[in-house]
Amino acid sequence: MALPKALENYRQFYRKIKTFQDIGSVLHWDSEVMMPPSGREYRAKQIAEISGLTHEWTVGPEYKDLIEKAVQSLSEVPQTQKSLWEREFSVLEDERKKAEKLPAEFVTEFSETTNLAHAVWAEAKKNQKFSDFSEILEKIVGLSRKQADYIGYTTEPYDVLLDSYEKDAKASEIDQLFQDLKKELVPIVESAPYFESPFSSRTTSKEKQEKLCKRLPPLLGLSFDVSRLDVSHHPFSTSLGKADKRITTRYSESDPLSSIFGVLHETGHSLYEAGLSEIEDWPSPLTEFLSLGIHESQSRLWENQVGRSRSFWEFLYPILISDFGLTEKDISFTDLYKSINSTKKSKIRVEADQVTYNLHIILRFEIERDLINGKIKVKDLPELWNSKVKEYLGLKIENDSEGVLQDIHWSMGGFGYFPTYTLGNIFSSQFFAAFEKETSGYQNSFAKDGDFSSLLKWLRSKIHHQGKIQDVNSLVSSATGESPNAKYLIQYLKSKVSEVGTI
Amino acid sequence: MALPKALENYRQFYRKIKTFQDIGSVLHWDSEVMMPPSGREYRAKQIAEISGLTHEWTVGPEYKDLIEKAVQSLSEVPQTQKSLWEREFSVLEDERKKAEKLPAEFVTEFSETTNLAHAVWAEAKKNQKFSDFSEILEKIVGLSRKQADYIGYTTEPYDVLLDSYEKDAKASEIDQLFQDLKKELVPIVESAPYFESPFSSRTTSKEKQEKLCKRLPPLLGLSFDVSRLDVSHHPFSTSLGKADKRITTRYSESDPLSSIFGVLHETGHSLYEAGLSEIEDWPSPLTEFLSLGIHESQSRLWENQVGRSRSFWEFLYPILISDFGLTEKDISFTDLYKSINSTKKSKIRVEADQVTYNLHIILRFEIERDLINGKIKVKDLPELWNSKVKEYLGLKIENDSEGVLQDIHWSMGGFGYFPTYTLGNIFSSQFFAAFEKETSGYQNSFAKDGDFSSLLKWLRSKIHHQGKIQDVNSLVSSATGESPNAKYLIQYLKSKVSEVGTI
Ligand SMILES: [Zn+2]
Ligand SMILES: [Zn+2]
């Protein structure tokens, strides 16, 4: 049966917006990966024009009217399809209504302030001086709370900000998950062994790394018919269109493992995007990614649960040895495997291993939540930061650049973003545990055949093809049979740490 | 003094259109150079959306109104600036009014027909059967004449089509130039010597060619701060923004000269675009390229007048020898220089040398002009084509694929495009002769220092920075002191042919 015309009209407008957003992704990918340096200024203008236009369309009266008419026409839709359409409009209107509540002057002020703050932050970080950043950070915190006030909240202002990245998440629930995790993590970190990377004493050329890295996306199921692997300053993945999901990495001659794990991580993101594009009526509001936490669960799953597993390396080790022009005597399987699962307390989040990483996130979540909720002041951040690092990781921060100034997020007004990283770790462990339970002998296919299709198939049906049909909690529950909980991440880390401690 | 508000408003709208056109260029460049194969379908949609939008804006009532108000406000502009503004609006309105005269149904039919024709042409060419293409070609010819009727002409319908590519050109004037040229060319071709390429018997790796080719754009004055060199199926150059002018080439292991001359050619195009972007109030209608003939003159000048000159190769020869891992015994300067300036009658335009190339163009011009003006019929094309090839080049066409079906242009409705190639050759010779006369000792800088800045400086001031301020005839006259004429091209080819015939 054909769609009521009003639904078709609204969807057409939606698709137009989506097409232009994807054009923005092309412009962005090119600017990070290909653009000659002097192109920057004009490209910024191109990107601003595209986002201006899509924003205008999204909040403008034409779209609003099309949506209203479409909602009215739902009475003509067969009962069986009705609830999907209702979900679609609820997802859509939630975003639109939030945007509507923010006065235009506020949006302008927010974006001007954060644009300015980026340079101030970078300079303060260079000079290791938090006090140079605190004034503008205070302004950003103030604006973020104002944003929460405009949109409205029931429990705490921080929930509003969180909601932009992790739909429907509540700080109190995340706090529960994170406290469970923290309690266990601190002793795990204490007992976890550290192993030096066997690569750190030798040089591995970019060409050798690239040869190996280019094998990985197709191996996991991301064909180069729909993807590319390139180099950029910060690795990322992006969707430029229905069948165009690109990833980047960077190569360090003294640390080839970082490019390998970067590629596994970004491939996981792109596999999710590729799976979403397979949903029958892509693109629609229900074929967009569900939340940042779910997105990150897909990257972390391939990076950690798969990429640090024994069976994965049983397959990849001989290929690595050959691609890198080494012998088994140069680097043994055991040394490689141990270094991949090594733990070391460190001060910098982006350099952290899979165990300590979550402590970095938990401390940021605790601090930014209190900051937004008005329980602490900007000027107290360095001291608070340093004492938490001492408490959770036993390390002494020597200057603000290796402490509270290390991350870009707050300068961009990105409060509520950090917790999604650890939510990703929690979800990925829970997903993988459910997959394991349902799939006997998968290790054999991983290790002997380099065949990961059983896992991809599971993810496609349980996660990717679900799109935005359910909310995060129901997705996790229906995929794993349990509400989101930290048990499986704790289990995974404990058993990993004990395994590598005894070989 | 500030601009009248109405002028500022109109320019702002102009710049918006231009920004989106440049976004279209990013999408196109990416699709030819970077995009994974499966991205094609969705990318076509993105490109169609962008060109739909820019077309809508260009012919829409808002722009028309802004232009009308801007024109009215010219009375407030100081006398000294008035004529420039008048030229700007005359250029602008000329294009807009032409577009207005074409009914929307006609534009749709034209584009649907040519879209269809592309596949028909490709299939007919594959099967060497012109008769399979003739029906749709007849339709395109009919539509093209209809287009000329809608727009209106004084002398002949072909002038209207020509005007889209070479503003203000008249077929009768081009015919005069081309007949002068043809009369001289036919005997030159007869006497011109052929020399085998010294590379044809050896393999030159893509890497070696790339090493040399990457030296060329910066050498000529196109820095990689504002450019890139990549590989694509058909070499091209494109402007993606004010300081983002990219070129492509392709590499053949048996013919490294083709990549070198491809890069010189495309660099010439991009140097012109880079020069246009240096004009103070870029972007405006007067900072766009003047005509395809002028654009092509800039590529041909660097490819032929510079790139096939003795002084250029005195500089580049030792570098080529070293980059290619050869010695002077492998390939001597003289053999290289002779092969670069070798002449050979051939049936395929895109493989033709600098001398015979123009005969390929002249025969196309003669045929397409008569076709559009109704003097000949589509069904007579093969016979006519073959007899002209026999007459001008002494060659016998064996099948339509090496004859009348070889080029894509007519299937796209591109009547009037071909002559701009030879206009480019005519202009480039005339420009270079004027530069030579004004610049003593330039050969020494070329040969000893690889310093081409005297030439670039001349082109910048006489051509590039002139933008669209004058029409083609006045530009050529003011740059060279003479109206466009074929004398310098004939002189150049004659002296080249006699030089390489006696060394
Ligand atoms: Zn990620
Ligand atoms: Zn050209």
Automatic annotation (TrEMBL), chains A, B:
The keyword Cytoplasm does not apply. InterPro entries: Peptidase_M32_Taq. GO terms for molecular function: metal ion binding; metallocarboxypeptidase activity. Signal peptide: none annotated. SUPFAM superfamilies: Metalloproteases ('zincins'), catalytic domain (SSF55486). Zn(2+) binds at H265, H269, E296. It comes from the Bacteria. Its EC number is 3.4.17.19. It catalyses: Release of a C-terminal amino acid with broad specificity, except for -Pro. The keyword Plastid does not apply. Its cofactor is Zn(2+). Pfam families: Peptidase_M32. GO terms for biological process: proteolysis. Binds 1 zinc ion per subunit. Broad specificity carboxypetidase that releases amino acids sequentially from the C-terminus, including neutral, aromatic, polar and basic residues. This is Metal-dependent carboxypeptidase. It comes from Leptospira idonii.
